[in-house]
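Exercise 7.
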Amino acid sequence: GVGVTVIFSTTVSSPGNVSYTWYSNNVVIAGQIASTLELDNVQTNFAASYKVAVTNDVVPNGIVSTNAVLTVLTPQQVTIAYLRTLVDPLNGYLPTNSPPTIAYQVTGTVTTFTNLTTGTTSSYYLQDGTAGINIFVTGATFRPAQGDVVTFIGVLSGFTSGLELYADSADTSFPYTSYTDTGTTNALPAPISIPFNVISTAGLNFVNTNIAGSLVKLTGVYFGTNAGTTISTTANETITVTNSSGQSFNLFFAFLDQNTAGQTLPSYAYSVSGAMYGMNTNFSVAVTRFADIVTTAPSPIPLSLVYSGGILTFNWSDASFVLQSSTNVVGPYTTISGANNGFTTNTTSAPAMFFRLYHP
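Solution. The predicted structure, written as tokens, is:
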């Protein structure tokens, strides 16, 4: 693979002084006159046929070895959703490739506001159009900003933070891993609205393979006895919150996050957003920006209706709101799939319906 060290060697038993000449695709490699040829940090252009010519004082014409063909494999470019399928549900949703040796390349948007681990390592969440995953780097000062587009080459592993891609270019075990902040910035993906009982509602397998690692949102959050307390500045902290039905979920705060550490928790939030942190049955919402604990009620969005010839047209200005309908004014309301600004429906033969805008 790209980045590894390759060593070719030959063993010679010969009288007199022995000399070596190494060739790549029949071209002499300057300066390589030892019995071994070491190629460090190989790249795709290193792929070639290699051979060595050996001479001595007795046989000046020497002997030429057979060709050794070097093939350099590039990391497979995949979606994050594909990586989330490479786990074993019968083993805590840990990766099936253990020990990790295969490098994968993904490109996505950094969704966490800060580094979630100690200063000599880096832990962020990356999300593409399919799913999210933790990206972890050892021995580096990798500090992407939230919204940065990052291309990451790593091996698949698992930790308490969840399924992760691991990179360490200084580790001789994984010299082919790397990370590149592309210099491009994307808008963050819309958080997935999850119920407090998401595991029982969506199923453990769906949560691990589709929701974990992505930006998520809890709504109607009560902090209970944690209200008024200060987020720790010395240790990572997990607190339990509830909804109006008494269902509970956990929020995770990293003490190294200077945006949340030392902040005072409210008694209630309309919504709390963050990365779905964890794996198997243990999940939290990792809040990395205090502003993602929203305590101010969202402003109403005007919904205008135009009726003509039995056709009802809906118009609203904020695309983050979805259109929902119900046959009863008090609900339950369900989201109309694919409905956006300018949505139309034929009312000539439809039953009485009630509509509302909803912010997930």
